[in-house]
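Researcher: Structure prediction, please.
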Amino acid sequence: MHDIQAIRDDPSAYDAAWAKRALPPQTPAILALDEALRAARTKLQGLLARRKELSRLVAERKAARDEAGARSVMAEAEALKAPIAEVASAETELDTGLRELMAALPNLPQADVPAGADDRDNVEKRRYGEPFPMEDAKDHVELGEGLGMMDFEAAARMSGARFVALKSGLARLERALGQFMIDLQTEEHGYVEISPPLLVRDQAVFGAGQLPKFAEELFQTTDGRWLIPTAEVSLANLVREQILAAEELPLRFTALTPCFRSEAGASGKDTRGMIRMHQFSKVELVSITAPEDSPAELDRTVACAEAVLKRLELPFRTILLCAGDMGFHARKTFDLEVWLPSQRTYREISSCSDCGDFQARRMEARFKAVGEKGTRFVHTLNGSGLAVGRTLVAIMENYQDERGRIAIPQALLPYLRGVSHVTAGA
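Model: Predicted structure follows.
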């Protein structure tokens, strides 16, 4: 959500920022609605003030036993009912229209975010590790089915496409990965573990920036709740409608949860395997900070996500996204992309974003500093630390051997009680 007063003060700055996302000027429509809304409110206030004055005059006339005068004033008051209802209806319609228009507009990219339309304009910032030398690498589907531990057909019979049933060693490896990630983020990086609701109401999804724009990409229950597409929704809303003390900040939350996405816009993309699923597990990182601290917190969030890949000794690169490739609610985003030998390319495994006060305005999340009279909106940040399924895919492909076995990274050995490989029948 955006600050209407800031748009009034400098509409060209907003249009210039949205232009980096390839959007045409938006402020003319915003300001036209805003002007009409303010005019309607002024007119309504005038009518209500007149009705209040007439009520006072009726009382005066009756006190003076001027029944004729009282009836005249009452007739004028009665005549105001229709115009008051009409203007009130117009005011409500204009207010709804302005809110809907503002809610549909994405966050403003920061000044240092490169312009661009899509991932071809992203900027690589750094790399870690060298891709493992491997000829004729099998992909994770061939490996998993060869082990007898990855069953897409059984999952499809019960749930349809984009689901999988993991078995035995791969199920255990996936569980170990999630536990390793949550331990790293809580024990070494200071995040507070949360076990949050997986079903949330409209207000929570709107606050996180998923509604109304991305409704078709979510799953909704018959009672109107939504399955979370990421724990970011639940974690960010922990501070919904709260006024925090400045000394409480920063707050850092993490959660390992299932996530649910309809992938409505992904028809034909990554239909093979576990890259793009309707249900997957992810460790989410969310920070709540003071505005001046959010740039440094973004760097910290990225480092916390990178630490997972470094511990697992997986080659990856860190990418600064251009404005056109950023998510709706982000003002600056770094993606981590892990090397997949079967595809001979890097694929996204984490996205870390600074949202500024965009989500906080939608959630009414504020803080109050000592000595300050008013309150300010907090800033929110989020990142994947990491997507468990995609990390499993990366380990399977990068740690495969010629016999189809999967070696266990050193960092995971304590979670698997010394098992060194996932092998058929184990």
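Model: The longest helix spans residues 27-63.
Researcher: Thanks, that helps.
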